[in-house]
């Protein structure tokens, strides 16, 4: 059963009877994707979760959310199910913060959930549909600390100082990375109160972060949860304990945690498949061909080209795809020769890394990776055509209506 099925099945059992578990963690990590505008107006403090859900419904249609193109937009469906039973009826939510800054390349949001036993779950939002959010993701490969990760530390220090009780930190995608970073580099007195850190298919870190005393001290408390074809969750380095679980989706679409399977109080275990290993090897070897200066330069150039279209989100970008691609090609023609060469070299090295990874897997007996890539591509194309799967917007910026026009 997927997350919505889990809530329908488990929602009649209070947390006092069946304690908080890893499935509940995934659900809580998705709450930070919800736009709790009313909480911003109220400031710090905890408020009734059901009341905030009702405020949300005053401005949004749950029927429209069911057909939303981006999986992060469907997070309120989990909240809706949470309100249908006693399991989370005494749960409160608060300390909601949203900070977006295009100039400093920061896309950050977080909130706290207060469990009935006094434990605080700090949920960090992952990447949204904004171009700035994705740009920050790419900067993680060449910067030890991004503006968002720095904000995560500041946020946790603030709420830990204000709140009593123990803490569980978690997040999905980039939010998982922020959760780990905040827990590792927070004030020492707060770190002692951290029970667990959940990284739900989020990327890792550069080696200097991994080898730092702060991260090494926290390492035993971290658990990474990743689907069998995990791609995002295998980027960069992360030596933490990993629980590979089963998703009902294919390829990159498994990043949508609402497709993860649960049974009773845990997620269904699996193993990383050849597609995940292939992608990790390809991207890892590709990044090794570039120094930090080249990585940052490439990121700046690529996103400057995208931003030349005046699009703020990938949904806007795909809304006028042909026109925007024409703009990008024109802007590429204006680039200095060294920047053009840098882009072409990077693409050439990516193709070469991909070939080498495929050959290596085939030689080691991995005969199914090609069929997995084809299957993943077919699933992605199918979802683009129907627009029914939320993760497509995360990958391609397609809404349902746009997908039906393909």
Automatic annotation (TrEMBL):
SUPFAM superfamilies tied to this protein: alpha/beta-Hydrolases
InterPro entries attached to this UniProt entry: AB_hydrolase_fold (IPR029058), Mbeg1-like (IPR024499)
Domain of life: Bacteria
Name the UniProt record assigns to this protein: DUF2974 domain-containing protein
